[in-house]
Amino acid sequence: MTVSQPAWAQDSHYLVKTDPRTSGRVMEILQTRAALPPELGHGDKLGQLSAAFLGVPYQANTLIGSRDTAEMLVADFNQVDCFTFIDYVEALSRAEDAAAFLARLADVRYAGGTVDYRHRRHFFSDWAAAEPHNAADVTRELGGLYVAVDKVLNRKADGSEYVPGIGTFPRTIDYIPASAINAQVLENLQTGDYVGVYTPREGLDVTHVGIAIRRDGQVWFRNASSVAGVMKVVDAPLQAYMATKPGMVVLRAQ
Description:
Helix content is about 25%, strand content about 20%. It is an alpha+beta fold. The protein has 2 domains: about 5-120, Putative xylanase like domain (Putative xylanase fold, Orthogonal Bundle), CATH 1.10.3670; about 135-250, putative xylanase like domain (putative xylanase like fold, Roll). The strands form 2 sheets. Strands 3, 4, 5, 6, 7, 8, 9 and 10 form an 8-stranded antiparallel beta sheet that branches. Strands 1-2 form a two-stranded parallel sheet.
C-alpha cells in the first residue's frame, strides 16, 4: 500500500491516502465548481459536480480502517462504491480549494470530522442522525404514503454486528414503498437529493445509495452500480430502478 501526502494535504492532522490522478481531478472539479453561477442551489451544484464521476469504475472496500487497523482518510477518484461516491460529491460541493476538500471530506465521512473508525458514518441514515448533520431526512415530506420502521441498526438476526466494534443503536427509518413512488413523489424530488434503497433486513437501513437528477423531463438515479456488466457510475431512470426494490429513503443536503 502506498500512502501519498500531496502538497495540499501536508497540514492534515490525520493520515491521508490518495494519488496524483485524484489530486488532479480534485483541482479540476473544483475549478468547475468555481465557475458555477453563485445563485445555483446546493442540489443543482451536486448535480453538476456528480456528473464528473459518470463512468468511474465501481470498487468496493476502498476505505482503510477497522477496530484493529488505524483509520486513514482515503480520497480515490479512480474507483468508487455507492457510499464513497456520495462522500466525494458532497465534500466537493462544500470545498473552496483542494486543501479544504480533505477537511470537508473528513466532515462528511466522519461524525464531528474525527477521522476514526468508530466515528465513521457507516450507515446512510447517519447522514441525518449523527451531528453535525450532513443532510435532513425529507422522506415524509415528499407526499403520499411512507412507512416508519423501528430498527436496531448494526444488529444482525443472530445478535452479532455487521460492523464489528461500533455497537448497535435504535433508529426509526422512514421509507416510501416502491409502489407508492408516484408522480407526486417524483415531482417533489429535487436534483441533488440523496436516495437510499431501503432494506427490510434486520439491522440495516439501506443497501445502496445514489443521487436524484432531474433531466429531460424525468428523474434519474445517479449511482455507482455494482451490477455485473455495468460496474461504474451511471444514470438510471429512478422509478424503473426502484420498481423491483422495497422502497426508498431520501435525504436532502442544505
